[in-house]
Amino acid sequence: MIHRLLAALGLGRNARPAAIPEPLWRSTVAGLPFLAALNREEQGNLKQLAEAFLADKSFTGAGGLVLTDAICVSVAAQGCLPVLNLGLHWYKDWSGVVIYPDEFVIPRQIADETGVVHEYDEVAAGEAWSGGPLILSWRDVLLADEGYNVVIHEFAHKLDMREGEPDGVPPLHPGMNQEHWIEVLDAAYEDFCARVDAGEETWIDPYGAEHPGEFFAVLSETFFTFPEAVRDSYPALYALFVRFYRQDPAARLPYPPALPRRAATAAVPPASRASRTC
Ligand SMILES: [Zn+2]
């Protein structure tokens, strides 16, 4: 099976989609409560999208990671959730996913005010290159939790990058006003930065205060995996996300009884994400 699936998805792009075996699909969904909360029709649509995504993109294991069907299906299923009601063409302008076993190092360059270029290494859990690959740390993918999802985070960056550098303003649908989006996003971002600067414990990952582009990516992963946090913190922005993603994750509640939700008071970001870069 692994050879058939990986041959379809890894050895050549634009292969004919191969069906994800039902047991593998069911175990993937069962391990991710925000996917298990989808209704039967939505899960069927997501499976078809994931199959098409696997056939369309190249997957590469790096740093010694040996890809398995389970890894590729998990990434495809989570990554396709944001475009469940948008369509796979939103991911058409890039070709591949690279997965490391753990955090990876990105060489960076930055010029100071005198023009001197400084080089340094940045450790990251994920990275989305404009027009290039999407890079993930598998260890961080496995840390998926309410409000933390590096896969959705990076895929949201890809949506944002469809109109240049990620700035929190993806291409909006007809009838959506960009000025209004920016106004609502900026107000929420300023409020969020003030809360983080004041040392307030936030429901949303403080990493979102890094930049408006990161705010959009962090809010997107929270929107899909811990929607109440976005809805209750920034209702106007939540309403815009519902229109943009054409999904209302908070309306999927209650989650199945077999998937108990974490107590609200326990929504403290794990230490592992305190220093994340993605
Ligand atoms: Zn990011």
UniProtKB/TrEMBL annotation:
The UniProt gene name for this protein comes to mtfA
- Stored InterPro entries: MetalloPept_cat_dom_sf, MtfA_fam, MtfA_N
Kindly provide the name given to this protein in its UniProt entry: MtfA peptidase
A GO MF term: aminopeptidase activity
UniProt xrefs under Gene3D superfamilies: Collagenase (Catalytic Domain), Glucose-regulated metallo-peptidase M90, N-terminal domain
Q: Which domain of life is it from?
A: Bacteria
- The secretion signal range is none
GO CC term (a single one)? cytosol
Per its UniProt record, what Pfam families does this chain match? Peptidase_M90 (PF06167)
